[in-house]
Amino acid sequence: MSEQMIYHTTDDNHVIAIHYWPCKAQASKGTVIWLHGMSEHGARYQNLASILNAAGWHLYCPDHRGHGASISDTCPAGHIGDQHGWQHLMNDVASVIHLAKEKHPQLPVVLGGHSMGSFVALGAAEQLGDTLAGLVLCASDYHPGAYYRLMGLPVRFERMRQGKRNPSPVIRKLTFGTWATRIPEATTEFDWLSGNPEEVKRYIDDPLCGFDCSTETWMQLVTAMRRIQSIAGLSELPETLPVLLLGGEQDPMSDNGKGMMALEKVLHAMKQPLQTHFWPEGRHEILNDHCRAEVEQAIIDWLAECTE
User: Fold this and answer.
1) Cα separation of 85 and 130, whole Å?
2) Is residue 278 part of a domain?
3) What does pTM read for this prediction?
4) Interval 84-96 mean pLDDT
5) Which domain range does residue 255 map to?
């Protein structure tokens, strides 16, 4: 079915835009809430929506604060807020879960996310896991707390130097810039996203993609990651919550998949119900890479298993 837009006013009066693709009511099996990554937006998941709808799943993709159509004076492009931005993201996810459950009261809800969206989804599942039937982490990563403490040093310095709402060339060089250099014979700065040149061009040509996030957004993310990826944080996941890990082994953001495999190891040690799929040639956006059809099928198959 065609995309619908929902505009939801949050408890702090921020309006988040939610891209909603409903499936036919008589065929509905459940609801997926999908959280997009940094410097992109929910409308990019039209292809995923088509696949999920055909399999009987509704799809909700909210635009994070400072992204897509969820931009305001307090959350300009790339900025999730001057303070408490991470908790606002958690509250936003809770609002979308509540909305989905109100609209489809008898259906299971699965939460998923790509890249930064996977981190937000993980944090939300630690707080709201009892309301979920499953968790999908796509193109994610894992590091011990010491890594995030170290990463926080230049981010904190750049926040002092540039201001909370402004981006930092240093942070860009340490992140997007570094990942771009790890693709041999790259023709654009975003080849690290996908091995499909048409998808890379589509990203570059999209005015709502590729922007730099603010220093405060990065600070909020780094601080939250140290907490949600700790053993104490991960232990907050309901012990019966099924988790699906999806990643590319040529993804520079996760050190060519090593970060995803480290996350797999930690969750496995904690005896979390877990299924993993890694694609040898996949880069960061496996849902926009040559392996797309296989990734989509893995999601559909897992959804059927975890909700049967």
Assistant:
1) 23
2) yes
3) 0.97
4) 96
5) 4-143+224-306
